[in-house]
Amino acid sequence: MAIRNKAFAALALTSLLGVAACGSTKEDTQKEAAATPAATEEGGAAAGGGEIKEGLKIAFLPKQINNPYFTISDKGGEDAVNAVKGEYKRVGPSDTAASSQVSYINTLTTQKQDAIVISANDANAVVPALQKAKAAGIKVVTYDSDTAPEGRDLFINQAAAEDLGRSQVQLLAKQIGPEGGEIAILSATPNATNQNTWIEFMEDELKKPEYSKFKLVKIAYGNDDDQKSFEETQGLLQAYPDLKGIISPTTVGIAAAARYLQGSDAKGKVKLTGLGTPNQLRDFVKDGTIEGFELWDPGKLGYLAGYAAAALASGTITGAEGEKFTAGDLGEREVGKNGEVLLGPPTVFDANNIDDFDF
Amino acid sequence: MSASTQAAPTPASPHTTEKTSWIDAVVRAREVSLIGVLAVLVIAVSIAEPRFLNAQNLRDILLNVTIVGLLAVGQTIVVITRNIDLSVGSILGISAFATGIMFADHNVPIPLVFLGGILFGAFFGLINGVMVAWARVPSLVITLGTLYVIRGLDFAWAEGRQINAADMPDGFLSLATTEVLGFPVLPIFTIAAMVLVGVALGRSRMGRELYAIGSNPDAAVLAGIRVSRRVLGAFVASGAIAGLAGVLYASRYGTLDAVAGTGIELAAVSAVVVGGVAIFGGSGTVWGAALGALLLTTIRSALVILQIDPFWDQAIQGALLLAAIGLDAYLAMRLARELRKRRSANRV
């Protein structure tokens, strides 16, 4: 009985902590509301200059702080911020829940950062918090995963969704050959915005006459979890014995699928392609489990985002279509439609070039 | 849940009929009703999708149960003493990362990596055990804390680094893909741990003392059992097993970062509960816990094979879990009632 009571006490304690946490979030909001007028004035004064200012406080807020992909992209961001003599900072959640970034945005707003560079876990959940940040004079740049347009000033697009979706189908079709066959997709979560957009373009690409012999039989979801992705790959091979290829447009999924294929009879027979990093897949490319896959260079993505944030915070650009800014080694970039800046076409990695890349 | 009274074996009465002793055995061996539930599930799924029963899929299920089954074995040791270890997922994660580091940065030979992983896990188990045994704070609270502390250490250590298949030796990675006479190698570790722990709990003095502690801690003290030391030992064992699970995780998935094994502690606790280990201690076996893990893994595999809509996946998984527990509890209750009836009939 004593144990039971103690357990109850523990639960009560936990829920109290939960309540306390909510309380502090609210407090942040109020503080931030109080800070707003002053911050706006500063923002107003900043507009109009032509040069990139020194000492800008630029904060990176990735989807997940421990995710290796963001480690690389944010390293690029750090390089850019250091190059413009700014103050780099990186914070973020360890889970990808829709609302997990909100408290970080609120804190950054209170700290009066000059710019927030964020990859959104959810296109809408972070918008109210970002709008408050913008009202406080903070410039908001999204990279990798966009928010609704009202939440940010610029979106640094790693690659046009259309290019990525279509090129993965083209890559797989080339590996399978003209005889075609059944193919499947192993995605992240069923609600993942990026993946779902790419998948739409994949499905559209497959409608073209040259892919008439290809049939998309299943879209499976590995939830960006090693074990789940592994099991889903097993399931695909079980359920579709004639499967010819799998596209996995997520780094966790493609690695898990490769690991499963490597140890199964289907190695080399079922083609696997998608999005992954060279370091992660080097082994599988060398032993023939994967012929080729693609990705943009995440370091350059963060780098470009860092420069864009500095340009916005210095007032040299406002995020309007047609404006130009210089992004260090990447040269001059132009703001496109809907406040988007495009990084460029994805790189295809295969046995011939994989050793030239280290990320 | 406490129908399986491992702790209190009933001496066979001389005038018991043959039928009663059979029922007696079934009630005591709670594992039998679990096997029944498992059989029902396998038959039902195989009728719907015959491919479910092919050799590759059965091997896959065995591979999938390896890690969670191992954690369930470790968890059983702790739960029997009326405690719980929620930190095993984090211990697995940090041991898996340590495994990767040992290979990638220090070229440690494979046997030493296994030893290192186990010791690493045992170390964190020791920390849990010391706090639970001597600080007298419920293990639920302590291990909930260490769950986050250890995961936090893992994040800080990894700093977003990822260790990939190319960083680990082929001999290690091939453990997860090799088979001996068609039987995968990885599950052998789990089976070995299960037999070792099962025999130790069931037959050794130390093992029986753990049951005694869980049944009635006060009585255990009065009986001269060194409760603190035994509970500490249970946590060290659970940690060491989680450490081993971390090494196997590394071999299995070949890609490691700081989130490895997040949330897997709940799967282990579910397996233990489904396996009939009483959550308030004192009864249950590792055989049951391992069967519980096998049942949960089979449910997951069945959902994938049956092409369940992924949006419904988790809800159906949970519902099947409840159905399995319900069916199992019903069977156990029916048999217990039957047994009671026969006993009282015998007495008259």
UniProtKB/TrEMBL annotation, chain A:
Keyword Transit peptide: no
Domain Periplasmic binding protein: 58-315
Main location: other
Superkingdom per UniProt: Bacteria
CDD domains reported for this sequence: PBP1_ABC_rhamnose
Signal peptide: 1-20
Keyword terms of this UniProt record: Signal
Protein's name in the database: Rhamnose ABC transporter substrate-binding protein
Species for this entry: Solirubrobacter deserti
UniProtKB/TrEMBL annotation, chain B:
Short name of one Pfam family: BPD_transp_2
Subunit note: The complex is composed of two ATP-binding proteins (LsrA), two transmembrane proteins (LsrC and LsrD) and a solute-binding protein (LsrB).
Keywords: Cell inner membrane, Cell membrane, Membrane, Transmembrane, Transmembrane helix, Transport
Membrane topology note: Multi-pass membrane protein
Official protein name in the record: Autoinducer 2 import system permease protein LsrC
InterPro entries per record: ABC_transp_permease
Organism: Solirubrobacter deserti
Role, per record: Part of the ABC transporter complex LsrABCD involved in autoinducer 2 (AI-2) import. Probably responsible for the translocation of the substrate across the membrane.
Compartments (UniProt record): Cell membrane
Transmembrane segments: 32-49, 61-80, 86-105, 112-135, 181-201, 231-252, 258-280, 287-308, 314-333
